[in-house]
Amino acid sequence: MVIIMAEGTVLSIERCSLHDGPGIRTTVFLKGCPLSCLWCHNPESQAFSPELYYFDEKCIRCGICTEICTTHAHSFTSSQHEINRSKCILCEKCVSACPASSLELKGSVMQAQDVIEIVLKDKRHYESSGGGLTLSGGEPLSQFEFSAELLQLAKAQNIHTCVETSGFVPTMRILSIAPFVDLFLYDYKESDAEQFEKTIGVDDELITKNLFTLDKAGSKIILRCPIIPTCNDRDDHFAKIAETANRLENITEINVMPYHPMGQSKSGRIGREYPLAGIDFSSDEKIIEWIEKISRQTKVPVKKG
User: Fold this and answer.
1) How far apart are CA 157 and CA 161, in angstroms?
2) Other Cβ atoms within 10 Å of 212 Cβ, number
3) What is the pLDDT along the chain (305 residues), one digit of tens a residue?
4) Please, what's the b/e burial string for 290-304 (b: 16 or more CB within 10 A of its CB; e: otherwise)?
5) CB-neighbour burial class of residue 239 (10 A; exposed 0-12, middle 13-18, buried 19+)
6) Of 134, 168, 174, 167, which Cα lies nearest the Cα of 150?
7) Which of these, 199, 228, 10, lies nearest to 109 by C-alpha position?
8) Within the chain, what is the greatest distance between any pair of CA atoms?
9) How many Å apart are CA 53 and CA 51, to the nearest integer?
């Protein structure tokens, strides 16, 4: 694979992360995802282009944004700040002018070399903790050339690499980057084919194929299972998680990923409706129950992710 000096749209870079693979890590979140999971907790990562992000609780209703916006995307009605996103050209003038920092631009175009320089700042922490670089999103493999270059640059520096993926990517692409990935954090969202298409927005054939293809190729895998009340918190789904794990030769553990409602407030900040409004955090007791139900049916370690 040849390094091609790719550019990508980065949502954020989080240093000293402890939840996206082993050890201390730098997680690079990329913009863009081909799926439409009802419970998405990073809705600002779905679009491939930058988006205007608005914190209503920070806005002081000063009106500066209406004065500086050349396309009249901002307006105030009865003290309510309205944003006409169809008019917004993402010029960032309002972001720079806002005295309350209630506006942000989510997503910036970066070169892979610039990203890896940020990653390298914490190399000593990776070496002492067994950590490294994690690519996440969105779906990081949707920006394939950029992700491939980042992974190659990391491995050239002997940095451990993880990719958090839905697996919804052409099989040859995911196989081609596999030699540069030490661990796949592979989403297992739903086991019923009909429910999968209803809640995720695509069918599960390619995702399932890629999971077993990676396993056959020898890739290390953690199966990450988001459990969403009213969607997939079912005994038959827990059984299928265990059954799937039992068929994988290179799986290291199963992560139960409890639902959290962060996606609701985030959706509002980019002007979208959230389809699962009203669902709250699951109790610790319920999470333990889910873990036990899966654990009884597999020898693969099951942990809260």
Assistant:
1) 11
2) 14
3) 444 578 999 999 999 999 999 999 999 999 999 999 999 999 999 999 999 999 999 999 999 999 999 999 999 988 799 999 999 999 999 999 999 999 999 999 999 999 999 999 999 999 999 999 999 999 999 999 999 999 999 999 999 999 999 999 999 999 999 999 999 999 999 999 999 999 999 999 999 999 999 999 999 999 999 999 999 999 999 999 999 999 999 999 999 999 988 899 999 999 999 998 888 889 999 999 999 999 999 999 999 99
4) bbebbbebbebebee
5) middle
6) 134
7) 10
8) 62
9) 6
Handedness of CA 104, 148, 262, 120 (dihedral sign): negative
User: Is 137 exposed, middle or buried (CB count within 10 Å of its CB: 0-12, 13-18, 19+)?
Assistant: buried
Query: What secondary structure, in 3-state letters, does the chain show?
Result: CCCCCCEEEEEEEEEEECCCCCCCEEEEEECCCCCCCCCCCCHHHCCCCCEEEECCCCCCCCCHHHHHCCCCCEEEECCEEEECCCCCCCCCHHHHHCCCCCEEEECEEEEHHHHHHHHHCCHHHHHHHCCEEEEECCCHHHCHHHHHHHHHHHHHCCCEEEEEECCCCCHHHHHHHHHHCCEEEEECCCCCHHHHHHHHCCCCHHHHHHHHHHHHCCCCEEEEEEECCCCCCCHHHHHHHHHHHHHCCCEEEEEEEECCCHHHHHHHHCCCCCCCCCCCCCCHHHHHHHHHHHHCCCCCCEEEC
